[in-house]
Design a protein that fits this description.
The protein is an alpha/beta fold. It has 14 helices and nine strands. A nine-stranded parallel β-sheet has the order 3-2-1-9-8-7-6-5-4. The longest helix has 18 residues, at 241-258. The chain is globular, with a radius of gyration of 20 Å. It is an enzyme of class 1 (oxidoreductase). This is tRNA-dihydrouridine synthase. Pfam families: Dus.
C-alpha cells in the first residue's frame, strides 16, 4: 500500500517536509501545496523556494499545479521537468471560495467541456506523468459519473478521489458510494483521500476497497506525524514526547531560518499546534498557553511544559471539532 502526504496549503511546505522526513517514516510521496502559475508565467518567491531541488533533497516529491488554463499548466509542468521532477499533479479539489470563484480547483469541475479540452491539450503536450486530485462534484454526487467519463479518456498516472462535494468543504462524511463507483469505473489507478485520522480508520477503508493501492493522508498526519508508521505497524519507534520534541525542534529551527520575523514564525508554529494538540487529550490548557504566547520565550516555555508533563497518545486522531 502506498501512503501519500496530502498537499496542505500554508502547512506542508519544504520546511515541514524536511522535518517530517527526518523524524518519521512511512510516507511514499509528498505533494506540494499548489503552485498557481499566472499569465506572465512566473512563480511567486514562496512557490519557487518550495520546489527548489536543494530544499527537497531525498524527499519523493510531486508538485501540484492549480490552474484552468492549459498553456499555464504546460508552462509550469515544463518548469518542473527542468528542475528534475517526473510527475505533476492537477488540483481539482480545492474548495476555497476565492479559488472556486475563478473556476479553478474544485470550481473547474463545474465546466466539464472546458475541463475536457484542458485535459486533452495537456496530455498531448506535457512530457511528464500527470496525476489528478479531484472531488466528486460541486453540489450533487450525480455529477461524478460524467466527470469519471472525462477522466477515463486520458492516461492519468493516478486519480486521487476525495469523495466529498465542493459544498461539503471538509464537513459531513465521505461519500463511500461515489468512491465505490470510481473503483468500478476508473481506468486510472486510484488513490483514496478523506478522513483517515487513525490506523483504525485506515484499516476500515482498506477493507472496504481492497483493490485500491494508495491512500493520501492529510489532517490525520498533521495531527499525528507518526500515523503512516503506525498504519504500517512500525513498533520500533513509538511516538513519545521525546520524539515529538525532536520533530518540533527541527520544525521550529527550520522556520526560524526561513522566516525572518519572530511573530510569523510563532504564527506558523501555533497553526501546527491546532493539529498536534490532538495527540494530547484533555490538554486544552496547554493548547491555550501555546496559542496565547506573544514571544518566542513564552511559546518555548508553553511547549516545554506540555512535553514535560504529558505523553502523546499515538492512538489519537484529528478532532474535527477543533
Amino acid at each position: 500500500m502506498n501512503l501519500y502526504f496530502a498537499p496542505m496549503e500554508g502547512l506542508t511546505g519544504y520546511v515541514y517536509r524536511n522535518a517530517h522526513r527526518a523524524c518519521f517514516g512511512g510516507v511514499d510521496k509528498y505533494f506540494t501545496p499548489f503552485l498557481s502559475p499566472n499569465q506572465n508565467h512566473k512563480f511567486t518567491a514562496k512557490e519557487e523556494k518550495d520546489v527548489l531541488p536543494e530544499h527537497n533533497q531525498g524527499i519523493p516529491l510531486v508538485p501540484q499545479i492549480l490552474t484552468n488554463r492549459a498553456e499555464d499548466f504546460i508552462w509550469a509542468a515544463e518548469e518542473m521537468k527542468a528542475r528534475g521532477y517526473r510527475e505533476v499533479n492537477l488540483n481539482l479539489g480545492c474548495p476555497s471560495g476565492t479559488v472556486v470563484s475563478k473556476y479553478k480547483g474544485a470550481g473547474f469541475l463545474a465546466r466539464q467541456e472546458a475541463l475536457n479540452r484542458f485535459l486533452d491539450q495537456i496530455f498531448q503536450e506535457v512530457d511528464l506523468e500527470i496525476s489528478v486530485k479531484t472531488r466528486i462534484g460541486i453540489a450533487a454526487p450525480e455529477e461524478f459519473p460524467e466527470l469519471m467519463e472525462i477522466f477515463n479518456r486520458y492516461p492519468i498516472r493516478e486519480l486521487t478521489v476525495h469523495p466529498r462535494l465542493r459544498t461539503d468543504f471538509y464537513k459531513n462524511t465521505p461519500d463511500w458510494e461515489s468512491f465505490g463507483y470510481a473503483v468500478k469505473e476508473s481506468r486510472a489507478p486510484l488513490c483514496y483521500n478523506g478522513d483517515v485520522f487513525t490506523a483504525e480508520a485506515f484499516r476500515s477503508a482498506a477493507a472496504r476497497f481492497p483493490s485500491v493501492g494508495s491512500v493520501m493522508l492529510g489532517r490525520g498526519l498533521l495531527a499525528n506525524p507518526a500515523l503512516a508508521e503506525r498504519i504500517r505497524g512500525v513498533e520500533e519507534a513509538p511516538m513519545t514526547s521525546y520524539r515529538l520534541a525532536a520533530f518540533h525542534q527541527a520544525l521550529y529551527e527550520g522556520y526560524c531560518l526561513a522566516i525572518p520575523e519572530e511573530r510569523n514564525v510563532l504564527f506558523k508554529m501555533k497553526e501546527m499546534w491546532t493539529y498536534l494538540i490532538c495527540m494530547f487529550p484533555e490538554a486544552d490548557r496547554y493548547g491555550k498557553k501555546i496559542k496565547k504566547a506573544k514571544s518566542a520565550g513564552e511559546y518555548e516555555a508553553a511547549v516545554a511544559a506540555l512535553l514535560r508533563e504529558r505523553e502523546p497518545d499515538p492512538r489519537a486522531g484529528y478532532r474535527a471539532t477543533l
